[in-house]
Every structure is written in C-alpha cells, then in structure tokens.
Design goal:
The protein has 13 helices and six strands. With 457 residues, the protein is mainly alpha-helical.
C-alpha cells in the first residue's frame, strides 16, 4: 500500500515538469507558425528543421529529467518527443530530396541532416532493444548540436558536379552515415558502462575537463590572430557563407573583446582539470569540491562567451560577424559536456539504478561496434572503388581518406583486442570513446581544417 502511494506521488510529481516542457514546445511551435503564416510556406525545409530542433530539445530535457528522477512518465514523454522530432526530420529529408533531385548526401549540411536522422532512429532502437532508457541523455544533445550547426551552413541547392553524378555516391554516403551513427551510439553506451562500472567521479572530471579544454584549445589555435585578437572570416548569416572582398581575398575580422572572452573561457574550463591534477598530486579530496564548483562556473562563462558570438560581435551592429560553424559547434559541445558531468555529480546513484548491469552495457557496446565496423569497412571499400573509377586511383591519401582509415584502425583494434586478448570493461570502453572522437574529427573537423579532394563533404 505504501509503495503504491509512493509511486502515485512520484507520477504526480512528474507531471508538472512534463507539462512545462510540453507548453514550452507548443509555444515555440506556435510562434514559428505565426511567423510562417505571415511570410511563407509552413512545410518548408527550414520550418521542419526548426520543429525538429524543438522536439529533440524537448526530448533531451525529458531524458535528463528521467535520469534525475527515474520517473517512467519522463522517458515515455521523451520517446514521444523523439518520435515527433524524427517525423519532422524525415519530412525535412524528403523535401530536400525532392527539391534537390537526389538523396541529401552531397555536402556537409545534407550529411548532417541524414546523420541526425539516423542517430534518432538508433536512439529509439537502443532504448527499446537494449533497455538503456537514459541513452538519450547523451545522444539527444549530439543531435541537438547537429541541428544547430545546420542552421549555420549553406542550404542552397546546386546541380551535381560530374564527380558526384554516380550511384556510388548514394551507396558510399549511406554506409558512412549509418556507420557514424552506430559509432555515436557505441560511445553513449560506453559512457553508460563507465558510470555503472563504478568509475570514480573525479576520473569523469578529468575526461570531461580534457574534452572541453581540447575544444577551446583548438578554437584558440585556429582562430587567434597574430596580435592576440580573435581573427575569423566575416560570416554572412543570411546567405550562410564567408564574405569575399575579391575572388581570392576574404574579409577577416579581429575582435579583441571576443578574444578576451574565449581566453577567459579557456582558463576557466582548464581549472577543473588543474584541480584534478592537484588532487592526484597532493591527495587532497577537498580540492574536488572546488573542481565541481568550477565546472558550474565554467558553464556560466561558456554561456557568456556564446552571447556576443550569436549576437554578431561585441558591438551587436550586425550578424555578419557571427562565429563560424566550426567555432560555434565547439562552444556548444563544451557546454553540453559540462552539463552532463554535473548531472553525473548530482544524480549518480539515480543513474546507476536506472541502467542495465555493467556486463550488459559492455556487451551492448560490443554488439553496436560489431555492426559499425563492417559498415566502416564497406564504406572505405566502396569509396576506393568509386575513386578508382573517377580519379584512376584507389587511394590518394586525401585527408578524409586518411582519417577514415584511422577510424577503421581504431575500431579494428577494439575488435582484435576483445576477440583475441579478451579485453573487456574499461579498456574496451576507452577504445569506444576514442573511436567516437576520431569519428567526429573525420566527419566534421577534416572538412574545415584539412580540406582536400573531399572538400564538398
């Protein structure tokens, strides 16, 4: 009787946050509808992507709510929101396909559109098949980052260049998208395993701190100018393209205020990692409390850094100085990493209670990589065959090809060590996490930092 009463109270207490998320989602959709009613077509690709973003954001919030409370009504609502986002995403893919006259596989925008769709599908499958109901706390933020990034990329449709007028394009890119989505799911499962395997929270602090520090360091190394200002190409938000003063000259901006903000953010996100190092050096557990607080402060500073970037620079006169997609993705991803760590700090016991056993999660990660690896293999094989038909060579050591091979080697090593040496547990999970980092760089970083023959992707 007492248990039934407790469950009833839990269900009632969970209705209010769900209602708030639902009302917020409905309000945003209503505002978007009013804007569209005045200016354009309701079922346009842009509007469907906006709806996708709203539903995925609502799903992410509800998955986090489930991780915090364990209330089943949260995860049911999160699944519904994911399904609604998937429907909007599917409609956006279909409209793009019809409008372009070919599958959405020809540039980074279209590949992201398809990747986010595949990730949402795998999230629902993992939730149903594996019973990992909190998997969306990791996969949905990644999907949200993908949709936000799409808002900054060029969406105009051009006729296919002769290089891409091949059926091998559809085969090659479809396999790549499915493989990368499966690798992302294996990363989420590996993170869940580390939580259930009783990995120390301070170790997660070191991992998350190293991740955010790497993101900000890459921004500093690639964007800071000679005189200490933040130099970047002026970005035309309306046309989603860099400004060109002439055919070979870009308009570059140096923004001292933004450089100070990012330098401050770099120092703040480095502080938790410094606290962790001090703890290991002096064995002073009291420093960890400071580290956890510094993570919270770093989120505030990172959010403060985003404001002028999204507003178009410190003067706010125009959006032409908005950050490049590469920079904004790094900043948003850093905030998500810090938020997930705080969730772990505050509600670790609840998360452990809601997850399958460590052995099951280890096995789920292995199964997922066992699907991803053949997809990666066939992706490289079809790409090599297509390259030979197009360029007369199976392999050209293009940056995208090289990093695709590195990705394949990481997962090949994972399977080799597991099957022949019997690696299980944390070492296997570390490989899955490292593989995901390589996947992200191959999929996105190479496109912006190491352009080559695959510049279109």
């Amino acid at each position: 009787m007492a248990r039934a009463t407790q469950e009833q109270r839990q269900a009632e207490s969970g209705k209010t946050p769900i209602a708030i998320v639902g009302l917020a989602t409905a309000f945003l959709l209503y505002v978007a509808f009013l804007n569209v009613a005045r200016h354009g077509n309701l079922l346009s690709e842009t509007n469907l992507l906006f709806a996708t973003l709203i539903f995925y954001a609502g799903a992410g919030a509800l998955y986090l709510g489930f991780g915090v409370t364990g209330n089943e009504s949260y995860v049911k609502s999160a699944s519904l929101a994911t399904w609604l986002g998937l429907l909007a995403n599917t409609a956006a893919v279909a409209i793009r396909w019809v409008h372009a006259g070919h599958p959405p596989f020809t540039n980074i925008y279209e590949m992201l559109l398809s990747f986010v769709w595949a990730l949402a599908v795998l999230t629902l499958i993992a939730e149903k098949t594996y019973g990992v109901k909190v998997i969306g706390t990791v996969t949905m933020p990644i999907a949200i980052v993908g949709v936000v990034l799409m808002q900054l990329l060029r969406t105009d449709v051009h006729p296919l260049v002769p290089l891409l007028q091949s059926n091998w394009l559809n085969v090659h890119v479809t396999l790549a998208i499915l493989a990368y989505a499966a690798c992302t799911l294996s990363f989420a499962l590996a993170m869940m395993f580390l939580i259930q395997d009783k990995m120390r929270t301070e170790t997660f602090l070191a991992i998350s701190g190293a991740g955010t520090l790497a993101l900000y360091s890459s921004i500093v190394l690639t964007c800071f100018g000679r005189w200490g200002g933040l130099s970047m190409d002026a970005w035309n938000q309306g046309h989603r393209v860099d400004f060109f003063l002439s055919q070979s000259l870009r308009l570059s901006l140096t923004l001292p205020v933004l450089s100070c903000l990012i330098a401050l953010a770099l120092l703040v996100v480095a502080s938790p990692l410094a606290c962790y190092a001090q703890t290991r050096w002096q064995n002073d557990l009291g420093v960890l409390m400071i580290a956890n607080r510094s993570v919270f402060i770093s989120i505030l500073v990172q959010g403060l850094t985003l404001v002028p970037l999204l507003a178009g620079g410190p003067n706010g006169r125009s959006r032409s100085a908005a950050a490049s997609p590469f920079m904004l993705t790094g900043l948003v991803a850093g905030i998500f990493i810090s938020l997930l760590f705080l969730l772990l700090v505050w509600r670790r016991a609840d998360l452990e209670r809601l997850l399958p056993t460590a052995e099951q999660l280890d096995r789920f990660t292995y199964k997922t990589i066992s699907v991803a690896f053949p997809l990666l293999t066939v992706t490289i094989a079809t790409g090599a065959y297509w390259a030979n038909q197009t360029w007369g060579s199976y392999w050209s050591w293009d940056p995208k090809e090289t990093w695709a091979a590195i990705t394949w080697l990481v997962y090949a090593l994972y399977l080799h060590m597991r099957i022949t040496v019997g690696w299980r547990g944390r070492r296997a999970a570390y490989f899955a996490i490292a593989g995901f980092a390589v996947v992200i760089f191959t999929f996105f970083g190479v496109t912006y930092l190491l352009p080559g023959l695959h510049a279109f992707s």
